[in-house]
Design brief:
CATH class of the largest domain: Alpha Beta
Number of strands: 22
CATH topology of the largest domain: Aldehyde Dehydrogenase, Chain A, domain 1
CATH architecture of the largest domain: 3-Layer(aba) Sandwich
Strand order of the largest sheet: 14-15-16-13-12-18-19
Shape: globular
Radius of gyration: 23 Å
Helix content: 40-55%
Bound molecules: ligand TXE
Number of domains: 2
Number of helices: 17
Amino acid sequence: MSNMDQVITTDIYIGGDRRPASDGGTYDLYNPARPSELVGHATAATRADIDDAVKAAHAAFPAWAEMGYQARIDLMRQVAEMLGANEEDIKYRSRLFTREHGKIARETLMEMSRVGDRFRQAAAYGERIMVDEVMGPAPVGPQFDTIVTRQPRGVAALIVPWNWPLSILGAKLPQALVTGNTVVVKPAENSAMAPVLTLQMIAKMLPPGVVNVVTGSSRSIGDALTGHPLVRNVNFTGSVPVGRHVMKVAAENLTPVTLELGGNDAALVLEDAALNDEVFNKMYWGAFGSSGQICMAMKRLYVHESRYDEVVDGFTAACERAVVGDGLLPETTMGPVNNAKQLRVVTDMIAEARAKGADVRECGQVPDEELYNGGGYFQRPALVYNADPSLSVVREEQFGPAMPIMKFSTEAEAIALANDSEFGLCSSVWTEDAERAVGIAKKLEAGYTYLNGHGPMAQDGRGPFGGFKNSGIGRNMGYDGVLAFAEPHSISAPAGFLVD
Ligand code: TXE
Protein backbone atom coordinates (compact mmCIF):
# COMPACT_ATOMS: atom_id res chain seq x y z
CA MET A 1 0.00 0.00 0.00
CA SER A 2 1.39 3.38 -1.01
CA ASN A 3 1.58 6.09 1.66
CA MET A 4 -0.77 7.95 -0.65
CA ASP A 5 -3.30 5.37 0.53
CA GLN A 6 -3.52 6.44 4.15
CA VAL A 7 -7.02 6.22 5.52
CA ILE A 8 -8.41 9.74 5.65
CA THR A 9 -11.54 11.39 7.01
CA THR A 10 -13.23 14.06 4.93
CA ASP A 11 -15.15 16.91 6.55
CA ILE A 12 -18.15 18.88 5.53
CA TYR A 13 -17.65 22.51 4.56
CA ILE A 14 -19.96 25.25 5.76
CA GLY A 15 -19.59 29.02 5.63
CA GLY A 16 -15.90 28.82 4.71
CA ASP A 17 -14.95 26.29 7.41
CA ARG A 18 -14.19 22.60 7.37
CA ARG A 19 -16.00 20.87 10.18
CA PRO A 20 -17.18 17.51 11.48
CA ALA A 21 -20.85 16.62 11.83
CA SER A 22 -22.68 18.26 14.72
CA ASP A 23 -22.81 14.84 16.41
CA GLY A 24 -19.33 13.79 15.26
CA GLY A 25 -20.73 11.06 12.99
CA THR A 26 -18.82 9.51 10.10
CA TYR A 27 -19.30 6.50 7.82
CA ASP A 28 -16.81 4.19 6.10
CA LEU A 29 -15.95 3.86 2.43
CA TYR A 30 -14.46 0.66 1.04
CA ASN A 31 -12.68 -0.16 -2.21
CA PRO A 32 -15.15 -1.81 -4.64
CA ALA A 33 -12.29 -3.93 -6.03
CA ARG A 34 -11.52 -5.27 -2.52
CA PRO A 35 -14.54 -4.58 -0.33
CA SER A 36 -12.66 -5.37 2.87
CA GLU A 37 -10.14 -2.57 2.20
CA LEU A 38 -11.10 0.57 4.08
CA VAL A 39 -10.38 3.67 2.00
CA GLY A 40 -11.56 6.32 4.41
CA HIS A 41 -14.34 7.93 6.36
CA ALA A 42 -16.71 10.62 5.22
CA THR A 43 -18.70 12.88 7.48
CA ALA A 44 -22.29 11.88 8.15
CA ALA A 45 -23.93 15.29 8.30
CA THR A 46 -27.00 15.77 10.48
CA ARG A 47 -30.19 17.67 9.73
CA ALA A 48 -28.80 20.50 11.89
CA ASP A 49 -25.72 20.63 9.63
CA ILE A 50 -27.95 20.86 6.57
CA ASP A 51 -29.80 23.76 8.14
CA ASP A 52 -26.48 25.48 8.88
CA ALA A 53 -25.24 24.89 5.34
CA VAL A 54 -28.38 26.31 3.74
CA LYS A 55 -28.33 29.31 6.09
CA ALA A 56 -24.65 29.95 5.29
CA ALA A 57 -25.44 29.86 1.58
CA HIS A 58 -28.42 32.15 2.13
CA ALA A 59 -26.29 34.64 4.08
CA ALA A 60 -23.62 34.68 1.37
CA PHE A 61 -26.13 35.15 -1.43
CA PRO A 62 -26.75 38.93 -1.54
CA ALA A 63 -23.07 39.88 -1.84
CA TRP A 64 -22.37 37.12 -4.38
CA ALA A 65 -25.34 38.13 -6.50
CA GLU A 66 -24.37 41.79 -6.20
CA MET A 67 -20.82 41.07 -7.34
CA GLY A 68 -22.01 40.92 -10.94
CA TYR A 69 -21.14 38.73 -13.89
CA GLN A 70 -17.67 40.00 -14.73
CA ALA A 71 -16.23 39.45 -11.26
CA ARG A 72 -17.77 35.98 -11.04
CA ILE A 73 -16.55 35.08 -14.51
CA ASP A 74 -13.01 36.04 -13.48
CA LEU A 75 -13.29 33.82 -10.41
CA MET A 76 -14.62 30.89 -12.49
CA ARG A 77 -11.52 31.13 -14.69
CA GLN A 78 -9.24 31.29 -11.67
CA VAL A 79 -10.89 28.16 -10.28
CA ALA A 80 -10.37 26.38 -13.61
CA GLU A 81 -6.67 27.29 -13.54
CA MET A 82 -6.29 26.16 -9.95
CA LEU A 83 -7.94 22.79 -10.67
CA GLY A 84 -5.30 21.95 -13.27
CA ALA A 85 -2.30 23.44 -11.46
CA ASN A 86 -1.01 20.90 -8.96
CA GLU A 87 -0.01 17.62 -10.59
CA GLU A 88 0.85 15.86 -7.35
CA ASP A 89 -2.50 16.73 -5.86
CA ILE A 90 -4.34 15.64 -9.02
CA LYS A 91 -2.53 12.29 -8.83
CA TYR A 92 -3.48 11.93 -5.18
CA ARG A 93 -7.17 12.73 -5.68
CA SER A 94 -7.35 10.58 -8.80
CA ARG A 95 -5.97 7.57 -6.91
CA LEU A 96 -8.34 8.17 -4.01
CA PHE A 97 -11.20 8.47 -6.50
CA THR A 98 -10.34 5.12 -8.12
CA ARG A 99 -10.03 3.45 -4.72
CA GLU A 100 -13.36 4.71 -3.40
CA HIS A 101 -15.22 4.36 -6.69
CA GLY A 102 -13.68 1.52 -8.68
CA LYS A 103 -13.41 3.32 -12.02
CA ILE A 104 -10.11 3.17 -13.87
CA ALA A 105 -7.44 5.83 -13.35
CA ARG A 106 -7.71 7.10 -16.93
CA GLU A 107 -11.35 7.97 -16.25
CA THR A 108 -10.81 9.57 -12.88
CA LEU A 109 -8.19 11.84 -14.46
CA MET A 110 -10.55 12.65 -17.31
CA GLU A 111 -13.33 13.52 -14.88
CA MET A 112 -11.00 15.80 -12.98
CA SER A 113 -9.96 17.74 -16.03
CA ARG A 114 -13.60 18.02 -17.09
CA VAL A 115 -14.50 20.01 -13.99
CA GLY A 116 -12.03 22.74 -14.98
CA ASP A 117 -13.21 22.70 -18.60
CA ARG A 118 -16.76 23.15 -17.42
CA PHE A 119 -15.84 26.14 -15.25
CA ARG A 120 -14.25 27.71 -18.35
CA GLN A 121 -17.32 27.00 -20.40
CA ALA A 122 -19.70 28.46 -17.80
CA ALA A 123 -17.49 31.57 -17.70
CA ALA A 124 -17.87 31.95 -21.46
CA TYR A 125 -21.65 31.60 -21.18
CA GLY A 126 -21.61 34.21 -18.42
CA GLU A 127 -20.10 36.61 -20.97
CA ARG A 128 -22.89 35.74 -23.38
CA ILE A 129 -25.53 36.55 -20.75
CA MET A 130 -23.90 39.95 -20.19
CA VAL A 131 -24.13 40.70 -23.92
CA ASP A 132 -27.71 39.38 -24.18
CA GLU A 133 -28.79 41.57 -21.28
CA VAL A 134 -27.48 44.72 -22.87
CA MET A 135 -28.41 43.98 -26.49
CA GLY A 136 -31.83 42.51 -26.16
CA PRO A 137 -34.32 40.99 -26.34
CA ALA A 138 -35.85 43.72 -28.46
CA PRO A 139 -38.31 46.11 -26.84
CA VAL A 140 -41.76 44.55 -26.63
CA GLY A 141 -43.92 46.81 -28.83
CA PRO A 142 -43.18 50.43 -29.75
CA GLN A 143 -44.55 51.97 -26.57
CA PHE A 144 -42.06 50.27 -24.19
CA ASP A 145 -38.36 49.91 -23.57
CA THR A 146 -37.79 46.51 -21.96
CA ILE A 147 -34.65 44.77 -20.85
CA VAL A 148 -34.62 41.21 -19.53
CA THR A 149 -32.12 40.55 -16.79
CA ARG A 150 -31.15 37.07 -15.65
CA GLN A 151 -31.37 37.09 -11.91
CA PRO A 152 -30.00 34.38 -9.64
CA ARG A 153 -32.60 32.61 -7.56
CA GLY A 154 -30.71 32.21 -4.29
CA VAL A 155 -29.56 28.96 -2.68
CA ALA A 156 -29.29 26.01 -5.08
CA ALA A 157 -29.18 22.43 -3.76
CA LEU A 158 -26.97 20.38 -6.08
CA ILE A 159 -27.32 16.61 -5.69
CA VAL A 160 -24.71 14.51 -7.41
CA PRO A 161 -24.79 10.72 -7.95
CA TRP A 162 -21.91 8.30 -7.49
CA ASN A 163 -21.39 7.22 -11.08
CA TRP A 164 -19.71 10.30 -12.59
CA PRO A 165 -19.49 12.59 -9.59
CA LEU A 166 -17.03 15.15 -10.87
CA SER A 167 -18.29 15.48 -14.44
CA ILE A 168 -21.83 15.82 -13.16
CA LEU A 169 -20.70 18.36 -10.61
CA GLY A 170 -19.19 20.30 -13.53
CA ALA A 171 -22.59 20.27 -15.23
CA LYS A 172 -24.27 22.12 -12.33
CA LEU A 173 -21.82 23.92 -10.07
CA PRO A 174 -20.12 26.49 -12.34
CA GLN A 175 -23.46 27.21 -14.03
CA ALA A 176 -25.11 27.90 -10.67
CA LEU A 177 -22.22 30.06 -9.51
CA VAL A 178 -21.64 32.17 -12.58
CA THR A 179 -25.29 33.25 -12.55
CA GLY A 180 -24.92 34.39 -8.94
CA ASN A 181 -26.47 31.58 -6.91
CA THR A 182 -24.87 30.18 -3.79
CA VAL A 183 -24.93 26.42 -3.34
CA VAL A 184 -25.10 23.46 -1.02
CA VAL A 185 -23.62 20.44 -2.77
CA LYS A 186 -24.35 16.89 -1.67
CA PRO A 187 -22.11 14.28 -3.29
CA ALA A 188 -23.36 10.67 -3.17
CA GLU A 189 -22.62 8.55 -0.11
CA ASN A 190 -20.56 5.98 -1.99
CA SER A 191 -18.29 8.32 -3.91
CA ALA A 192 -17.80 11.19 -1.52
CA MET A 193 -14.17 11.75 -0.64
CA ALA A 194 -12.50 12.81 -3.90
CA PRO A 195 -15.51 15.06 -4.68
CA VAL A 196 -15.37 16.62 -1.20
CA LEU A 197 -11.64 17.38 -1.46
CA THR A 198 -12.16 18.88 -4.92
CA LEU A 199 -15.12 20.95 -3.75
CA GLN A 200 -13.18 22.26 -0.77
CA MET A 201 -10.43 23.50 -3.08
CA ILE A 202 -13.04 25.32 -5.15
CA ALA A 203 -14.91 26.68 -2.14
CA LYS A 204 -11.75 28.14 -0.61
CA MET A 205 -11.25 30.38 -3.63
CA LEU A 206 -14.70 31.94 -3.25
CA PRO A 207 -16.23 34.09 -0.52
CA PRO A 208 -17.26 32.04 2.55
CA GLY A 209 -20.71 30.50 2.22
CA VAL A 210 -20.85 30.60 -1.58
CA VAL A 211 -20.04 26.86 -1.83
CA ASN A 212 -21.05 24.57 1.05
CA VAL A 213 -20.59 20.82 1.00
CA VAL A 214 -22.40 18.13 2.97
CA THR A 215 -22.11 14.36 2.89
CA GLY A 216 -24.08 11.60 4.55
CA SER A 217 -27.04 9.33 4.26
CA SER A 218 -29.69 10.62 1.88
CA ARG A 219 -32.30 8.91 3.98
CA SER A 220 -31.54 11.20 6.91
CA ILE A 221 -30.51 14.44 5.22
CA GLY A 222 -31.99 14.35 1.67
CA ASP A 223 -35.38 15.79 2.55
CA ALA A 224 -33.88 18.33 4.95
CA LEU A 225 -32.00 19.75 1.97
CA THR A 226 -34.53 19.53 -0.87
CA GLY A 227 -37.39 20.60 1.39
CA HIS A 228 -35.57 23.47 3.09
CA PRO A 229 -37.63 26.66 2.73
CA LEU A 230 -34.54 28.75 1.93
CA VAL A 231 -33.57 26.50 -1.00
CA ARG A 232 -34.73 28.17 -4.22
CA ASN A 233 -33.64 25.59 -6.77
CA VAL A 234 -32.96 21.84 -6.68
CA ASN A 235 -30.77 20.26 -9.34
CA PHE A 236 -30.76 16.46 -8.93
CA THR A 237 -29.11 13.64 -10.87
CA GLY A 238 -30.03 10.12 -9.84
CA SER A 239 -32.69 7.45 -10.21
CA VAL A 240 -36.32 7.79 -11.30
CA PRO A 241 -37.91 6.86 -7.95
CA VAL A 242 -35.70 9.26 -5.99
CA GLY A 243 -36.22 11.99 -8.62
CA ARG A 244 -39.96 11.61 -8.20
CA HIS A 245 -39.57 11.82 -4.42
CA VAL A 246 -37.34 14.90 -4.63
CA MET A 247 -39.90 16.62 -6.83
CA LYS A 248 -42.66 15.91 -4.30
CA VAL A 249 -40.59 17.25 -1.40
CA ALA A 250 -39.60 20.36 -3.37
CA ALA A 251 -43.23 20.91 -4.37
CA GLU A 252 -44.07 21.79 -0.77
CA ASN A 253 -42.19 25.09 -1.24
CA LEU A 254 -42.85 25.27 -5.03
CA THR A 255 -39.08 25.01 -5.45
CA PRO A 256 -38.18 24.51 -9.10
CA VAL A 257 -36.41 21.24 -9.90
CA THR A 258 -34.11 20.04 -12.64
CA LEU A 259 -34.01 16.24 -12.73
CA GLU A 260 -31.64 14.05 -14.74
CA LEU A 261 -32.74 10.48 -14.15
CA GLY A 262 -30.76 8.17 -16.35
CA GLY A 263 -31.70 6.47 -19.57
CA ASN A 264 -31.91 3.36 -21.65
CA ASP A 265 -30.20 4.71 -24.73
CA ALA A 266 -30.74 3.00 -28.06
CA ALA A 267 -28.03 2.96 -30.72
CA LEU A 268 -29.24 2.38 -34.29
CA VAL A 269 -26.70 0.96 -36.73
CA LEU A 270 -28.06 1.52 -40.25
CA GLU A 271 -27.27 -0.58 -43.31
CA ASP A 272 -24.69 1.93 -44.62
CA ALA A 273 -22.75 2.45 -41.36
CA ALA A 274 -18.96 2.61 -41.69
CA LEU A 275 -17.74 -0.23 -39.48
CA ASN A 276 -14.19 -1.15 -38.55
CA ASP A 277 -12.19 -1.90 -35.41
CA GLU A 278 -11.84 1.76 -34.53
CA VAL A 279 -15.61 2.19 -34.72
CA PHE A 280 -16.19 -0.95 -32.65
CA ASN A 281 -13.79 0.38 -30.02
CA LYS A 282 -15.72 3.63 -30.00
CA MET A 283 -18.92 1.64 -29.48
CA TYR A 284 -17.24 -0.31 -26.69
CA TRP A 285 -16.32 2.88 -24.80
CA GLY A 286 -19.77 4.34 -25.51
CA ALA A 287 -21.33 1.30 -23.87
CA PHE A 288 -18.84 0.20 -21.24
CA GLY A 289 -16.86 3.25 -20.15
CA SER A 290 -17.07 3.39 -16.34
CA SER A 291 -18.18 -0.25 -16.45
CA GLY A 292 -21.41 0.89 -18.12
CA GLN A 293 -22.41 3.14 -15.20
CA ILE A 294 -23.07 6.26 -17.20
CA CYS A 295 -26.43 7.88 -17.81
CA MET A 296 -25.57 8.62 -21.45
CA ALA A 297 -24.07 5.19 -22.17
CA MET A 298 -25.30 3.05 -25.04
CA LYS A 299 -27.66 0.53 -23.44
CA ARG A 300 -29.52 -1.14 -26.33
CA LEU A 301 -27.85 -1.86 -29.64
CA TYR A 302 -30.18 -2.25 -32.65
CA VAL A 303 -28.52 -3.27 -35.92
CA HIS A 304 -29.91 -3.47 -39.44
CA GLU A 305 -30.30 -7.16 -40.24
CA SER A 306 -27.88 -6.89 -43.18
CA ARG A 307 -25.03 -5.82 -40.82
CA TYR A 308 -26.00 -7.78 -37.72
CA ASP A 309 -23.38 -10.53 -37.94
CA GLU A 310 -20.64 -8.01 -38.68
CA VAL A 311 -21.57 -5.89 -35.65
CA VAL A 312 -21.83 -8.94 -33.41
CA ASP A 313 -18.36 -10.09 -34.49
CA GLY A 314 -16.72 -6.64 -34.30
CA PHE A 315 -18.34 -5.54 -31.05
CA THR A 316 -17.68 -8.91 -29.40
CA ALA A 317 -14.03 -8.64 -30.41
CA ALA A 318 -13.83 -5.14 -28.89
CA CYS A 319 -15.37 -6.50 -25.66
CA GLU A 320 -12.90 -9.40 -25.65
CA ARG A 321 -10.09 -6.83 -25.60
CA ALA A 322 -11.39 -5.44 -22.29
CA VAL A 323 -9.04 -6.02 -19.36
CA VAL A 324 -11.11 -6.32 -16.20
CA GLY A 325 -9.46 -5.73 -12.83
CA ASP A 326 -8.12 -3.18 -10.38
CA GLY A 327 -8.60 0.31 -11.81
CA LEU A 328 -5.27 1.46 -10.36
CA LEU A 329 -3.34 -0.77 -12.79
CA PRO A 330 -2.53 0.97 -16.07
CA GLU A 331 -3.47 -2.06 -18.18
CA THR A 332 -6.99 -2.27 -16.73
CA THR A 333 -9.70 -0.96 -19.04
CA MET A 334 -12.70 -1.95 -16.91
CA GLY A 335 -12.85 -1.66 -13.14
CA PRO A 336 -15.45 -3.12 -10.80
CA VAL A 337 -18.97 -1.83 -10.56
CA ASN A 338 -19.25 0.76 -7.77
CA ASN A 339 -21.40 -1.10 -5.26
CA ALA A 340 -22.96 -4.44 -4.39
CA LYS A 341 -26.52 -3.30 -5.16
CA GLN A 342 -25.55 -2.18 -8.67
CA LEU A 343 -23.64 -5.40 -9.29
CA ARG A 344 -26.72 -7.40 -8.34
CA VAL A 345 -28.89 -5.40 -10.78
CA VAL A 346 -26.57 -6.39 -13.61
CA THR A 347 -25.92 -9.99 -12.61
CA ASP A 348 -29.66 -10.56 -12.10
CA MET A 349 -30.31 -9.30 -15.62
CA ILE A 350 -27.66 -11.62 -17.05
CA ALA A 351 -29.03 -14.55 -15.05
CA GLU A 352 -32.58 -13.83 -16.21
CA ALA A 353 -31.45 -13.72 -19.84
CA ARG A 354 -29.66 -17.07 -19.42
CA ALA A 355 -32.60 -18.63 -17.59
CA LYS A 356 -34.89 -17.65 -20.45
CA GLY A 357 -32.62 -19.30 -22.99
CA ALA A 358 -30.90 -16.21 -24.43
CA ASP A 359 -27.50 -16.45 -26.09
CA VAL A 360 -25.21 -14.72 -23.56
CA ARG A 361 -21.47 -14.29 -23.81
CA GLU A 362 -19.23 -12.88 -21.12
CA CYS A 363 -16.17 -11.30 -22.71
CA GLY A 364 -12.90 -9.73 -21.67
CA GLN A 365 -9.66 -10.76 -20.07
CA VAL A 366 -9.22 -11.26 -16.37
CA PRO A 367 -5.47 -11.16 -15.59
CA ASP A 368 -5.99 -11.57 -11.85
CA GLU A 369 -8.56 -14.34 -11.29
CA GLU A 370 -7.99 -14.27 -7.56
CA LEU A 371 -8.96 -10.59 -7.37
CA TYR A 372 -11.86 -11.06 -9.79
CA ASN A 373 -13.32 -13.86 -7.70
CA GLY A 374 -12.32 -12.34 -4.38
CA GLY A 375 -15.58 -10.61 -3.50
CA GLY A 376 -15.00 -7.34 -5.42
CA TYR A 377 -17.91 -6.05 -7.50
CA PHE A 378 -16.55 -7.33 -10.80
CA GLN A 379 -18.53 -8.27 -13.87
CA ARG A 380 -16.97 -8.88 -17.28
CA PRO A 381 -18.77 -7.23 -20.22
CA ALA A 382 -21.70 -9.49 -21.06
CA LEU A 383 -23.46 -9.46 -24.42
CA VAL A 384 -26.97 -10.80 -24.97
CA TYR A 385 -27.36 -11.61 -28.64
CA ASN A 386 -30.75 -11.39 -30.36
CA ALA A 387 -32.20 -10.39 -27.01
CA ASP A 388 -35.92 -10.82 -26.59
CA PRO A 389 -37.58 -7.42 -26.07
CA SER A 390 -39.25 -8.63 -22.87
CA LEU A 391 -35.93 -9.19 -21.06
CA SER A 392 -35.11 -6.73 -18.31
CA VAL A 393 -31.68 -6.09 -19.88
CA VAL A 394 -33.65 -4.56 -22.78
CA ARG A 395 -36.45 -2.88 -20.85
CA GLU A 396 -34.57 -1.46 -17.85
CA GLU A 397 -31.46 0.62 -17.34
CA GLN A 398 -28.70 -1.93 -16.66
CA PHE A 399 -26.16 0.70 -15.54
CA GLY A 400 -23.41 -1.87 -15.74
CA PRO A 401 -21.46 -4.06 -18.16
CA ALA A 402 -24.27 -5.88 -19.99
CA MET A 403 -25.60 -5.10 -23.45
CA PRO A 404 -28.42 -6.52 -25.55
CA ILE A 405 -27.90 -6.61 -29.33
CA MET A 406 -30.95 -6.85 -31.58
CA LYS A 407 -31.93 -6.68 -35.25
CA PHE A 408 -34.29 -4.45 -37.19
CA SER A 409 -35.31 -4.47 -40.82
CA THR A 410 -36.82 -1.04 -41.56
CA GLU A 411 -36.08 2.51 -40.47
CA ALA A 412 -39.61 2.89 -39.08
CA GLU A 413 -39.14 -0.25 -37.00
CA ALA A 414 -35.79 1.01 -35.68
CA ILE A 415 -37.32 4.32 -34.58
CA ALA A 416 -40.26 2.56 -32.92
CA LEU A 417 -37.92 0.19 -31.05
CA ALA A 418 -35.71 3.04 -29.88
CA ASN A 419 -38.73 4.98 -28.62
CA ASP A 420 -40.26 1.95 -26.92
CA SER A 421 -38.89 2.91 -23.51
CA GLU A 422 -39.99 4.81 -20.43
CA PHE A 423 -36.69 6.70 -20.78
CA GLY A 424 -35.57 9.27 -23.33
CA LEU A 425 -32.13 10.55 -22.43
CA CYS A 426 -29.79 9.94 -25.38
CA SER A 427 -29.62 7.84 -28.54
CA SER A 428 -27.28 7.40 -31.47
CA VAL A 429 -27.47 6.80 -35.20
CA TRP A 430 -24.60 5.19 -37.06
CA THR A 431 -24.65 5.88 -40.80
CA GLU A 432 -22.73 7.60 -43.59
CA ASP A 433 -25.80 9.59 -44.63
CA ALA A 434 -25.91 12.87 -42.66
CA GLU A 435 -29.31 14.00 -43.92
CA ARG A 436 -30.95 10.69 -43.12
CA ALA A 437 -29.25 10.65 -39.71
CA VAL A 438 -30.68 14.05 -38.76
CA GLY A 439 -34.12 13.03 -40.07
CA ILE A 440 -34.09 9.93 -37.88
CA ALA A 441 -32.68 11.81 -34.88
CA LYS A 442 -35.61 14.24 -35.00
CA LYS A 443 -38.00 11.32 -34.61
CA LEU A 444 -36.21 9.91 -31.57
CA GLU A 445 -37.59 10.76 -28.15
CA ALA A 446 -34.29 11.75 -26.60
CA GLY A 447 -32.68 14.93 -25.37
CA TYR A 448 -29.40 14.23 -27.17
CA THR A 449 -28.64 12.16 -30.27
CA TYR A 450 -25.05 11.33 -31.18
CA LEU A 451 -24.20 10.61 -34.80
CA ASN A 452 -21.48 7.97 -35.27
CA GLY A 453 -20.58 8.07 -31.61
CA HIS A 454 -22.19 7.57 -28.22
CA GLY A 455 -21.51 8.56 -24.62
CA PRO A 456 -19.23 10.99 -22.83
CA MET A 457 -16.43 10.85 -25.39
CA ALA A 458 -18.89 11.97 -28.06
CA GLN A 459 -20.50 14.67 -25.93
CA ASP A 460 -20.38 18.32 -26.99
CA GLY A 461 -20.69 20.39 -23.80
CA ARG A 462 -22.37 23.16 -25.77
CA GLY A 463 -25.42 20.95 -26.24
CA PRO A 464 -28.04 21.16 -23.50
CA PHE A 465 -28.26 17.81 -21.77
CA GLY A 466 -31.33 16.16 -20.28
CA GLY A 467 -34.16 13.86 -21.13
CA PHE A 468 -37.63 13.24 -22.45
CA LYS A 469 -40.16 11.13 -20.53
CA ASN A 470 -38.85 9.50 -17.33
CA SER A 471 -35.32 10.65 -18.05
CA GLY A 472 -36.16 13.89 -16.36
CA ILE A 473 -37.11 17.52 -16.44
CA GLY A 474 -35.03 20.47 -17.62
CA ARG A 475 -31.50 20.66 -18.95
CA ASN A 476 -27.94 20.92 -17.67
CA MET A 477 -24.97 22.03 -19.78
CA GLY A 478 -24.94 24.38 -22.78
CA TYR A 479 -26.30 27.91 -22.61
CA ASP A 480 -29.71 26.54 -21.54
CA GLY A 481 -28.05 24.80 -18.60
CA VAL A 482 -26.70 28.16 -17.41
CA LEU A 483 -29.97 30.02 -17.99
CA ALA A 484 -31.73 27.31 -15.97
CA PHE A 485 -30.09 28.73 -12.85
CA ALA A 486 -31.41 32.25 -13.45
CA GLU A 487 -34.89 33.72 -13.40
CA PRO A 488 -35.70 36.05 -16.28
CA HIS A 489 -36.66 39.45 -14.89
CA SER A 490 -38.29 41.96 -17.26
CA ILE A 491 -37.61 45.62 -16.51
CA SER A 492 -39.80 47.85 -18.58
CA ALA A 493 -40.48 51.55 -18.99
CA PRO A 494 -42.33 53.89 -21.37
CA ALA A 495 -40.46 54.23 -24.68
CA GLY A 496 -37.48 56.58 -24.54
CA PHE A 497 -36.71 56.04 -20.86
CA LEU A 498 -34.12 53.22 -21.29
CA VAL A 499 -33.30 53.38 -25.01
CA ASP A 500 -32.75 56.60 -26.99
O1 TXE B 1 -29.61 6.02 -7.12
P1 TXE B 1 -30.27 7.08 -6.13
P2 TXE B 1 -28.89 4.64 -6.79
C1 TXE B 1 -29.92 4.96 -11.79
C2 TXE B 1 -29.26 3.68 -12.24
C3 TXE B 1 -29.06 2.95 -10.97
C4 TXE B 1 -30.25 3.37 -10.16
C5 TXE B 1 -30.09 3.28 -8.67
O2 TXE B 1 -30.17 2.96 -13.04
O3 TXE B 1 -29.10 1.57 -11.15
O4 TXE B 1 -30.45 4.72 -10.53
O5 TXE B 1 -28.92 3.96 -8.23
C6 TXE B 1 -29.21 10.92 -3.67
N1 TXE B 1 -33.08 13.28 -1.27
N2 TXE B 1 -28.99 6.07 -11.68
O6 TXE B 1 -29.71 3.80 -5.87
O7 TXE B 1 -30.68 6.43 -4.87
C7 TXE B 1 -28.10 9.91 -3.41
O8 TXE B 1 -27.37 10.29 -2.26
C8 TXE B 1 -32.02 13.81 -1.89
C9 TXE B 1 -28.87 6.87 -12.85
O9 TXE B 1 -27.53 4.95 -6.38
O10 TXE B 1 -31.26 7.84 -6.93
C10 TXE B 1 -27.26 10.10 -4.63
O11 TXE B 1 -26.49 11.29 -4.48
N3 TXE B 1 -31.07 13.05 -2.48
C11 TXE B 1 -28.28 8.17 -12.51
C12 TXE B 1 -28.31 10.33 -5.74
O12 TXE B 1 -29.48 10.72 -5.04
C13 TXE B 1 -31.21 11.72 -2.44
C14 TXE B 1 -27.14 8.19 -11.60
C15 TXE B 1 -28.62 9.08 -6.57
O13 TXE B 1 -29.04 8.03 -5.74
C16 TXE B 1 -32.31 11.12 -1.79
C17 TXE B 1 -27.35 7.31 -10.46
C18 TXE B 1 -33.27 11.96 -1.19
N4 TXE B 1 -34.36 11.50 -0.56
C19 TXE B 1 -28.24 6.28 -10.56
N5 TXE B 1 -32.17 9.77 -1.90
C20 TXE B 1 -28.09 9.02 -13.71
N6 TXE B 1 -29.01 9.96 -13.92
O14 TXE B 1 -27.14 8.86 -14.44
C21 TXE B 1 -31.04 9.53 -2.60
N7 TXE B 1 -30.45 10.72 -2.92
